[in-house]
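To assess whether the prediction recovers the assembly geometry, we first specified each molecular entity separately, as shown.
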Amino acid sequence: ISESNFPVAAGLASSASGFSALTVAACSAAGLKLSPKELSILTRQGSGSACRSIFGGFVEWHRGNREDGSDSYAEEIAAKEHWPDFRMIATIVEAKKKPVSSRGGMAQTVATCPYYKDWLATVDEDLKAVRDGIKARDFEKVGSTAEFNALKMHATMITTKPSIIYWIPATMEIIHAVRQMREDGLQAYFTMDAGPNVKVLCQEKDISEITDRLKDLDGVTNTILCKPGAGAKIVNDHLF
Amino acid sequence: ISESNFPVAAGLASSASGFSALTVAACSAAGLKLSPKELSILTRQGSGSACRSIFGGFVEWHRGNREDGSDSYAEEIAAKEHWPDFRMIATIVEAKKKPVSSRGGMAQTVATCPYYKDWLATVDEDLKAVRDGIKARDFEKVGSTAEFNALKMHATMITTKPSIIYWIPATMEIIHAVRQMREDGLQAYFTMDAGPNVKVLCQEKDISEITDRLKDLDGVTNTILCKPGAGAKIVNDHLF
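The predicted structure of the complete assembly is given in tokenized form:
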């Protein structure tokens, strides 16, 4: 039996939270004493991004070099107490199934996107900028790098044959609304996973104004406020 | 005094038709006898794409190599009678001003887009495919090449710093609607200039079904049916 307090929808990391919880619970039930790194490596078998959800705070996923992926794992780069007023507002725009699965999509992108190599060439630089930005609590640096990185990633999917276009009308509404927020002096940046939902990065001081503006958009059915939290852990509440 | 039977809006080539008409009219008034190629070179000073509108039928714009642009001009590659059932349905989605002018935008893209070189490397191949497709009246080849080329171009604008994002909610509605049409067996492809409006390439036999579907979309305020026409010419009707 499993339960989620987050919608199980495209691009909302539901498989990441679910698989990390399952891994921690199953290891505990089996009496396995694994280190956080070992848990991260193990849970990656269920869902790649789940390797990050073992940890709390701000986490980096190391790509690794081995063919079998055994050196691909995550580690915490800053505890949640390091930057307590960092926020992410997840917008929910639809519950429909993704048109192309992101796993199949990625293989197509590698094979057919004319921009894929140039995309890869910018990833390390962006990763360093975000890592440095988190350490320095530089919101503009983290936000602008994440936003441009997301646009570059979606541009590679859009130019895959056949095209993988996750953006829907509501996606564009939110993108333009966030750009307008910045014109109006609000500190807000958007980012996107492989799905139509947009996440808005912001700080605690601006939550109310940004949330109001997002909820006013036609295509936004709900918003979920997220903040740096704890990692996966054993709790004593039972689901059954 | 000038008059247009086409909306003067972003991405609808209003400057192309206007400047080619002005050039032909002004040369006639001044008693200049220029060849079509000379007219094409001259009118390009007003608006780049106007160099194509001197001609009728299917036209190719040669980029040229000279710094001063004097060898950049257009020529007809097939007369309108060559492919009389080729159609383009222009959708009108908004009358707002473009957020970033396409001229300023292009310079930013050249300077900052990580994909710009890879984009340039694919242009000659696409141009050849479309040219061959027109000569062979191969609708799928022309349509699919034009569509993917437009996506690649918009991807370079999206990944310009700062991002040039012309797509609005209605743009995504139309893109997904056209993809759905193909799923349903209709032959339709979309293409886009530097603006939010989408043009749907199709053939005479499918006009009614495709137009109905486009008009059903929330963000589409109007559609304009276009077909291969004549070039700029002197008429005897006066506007004043």
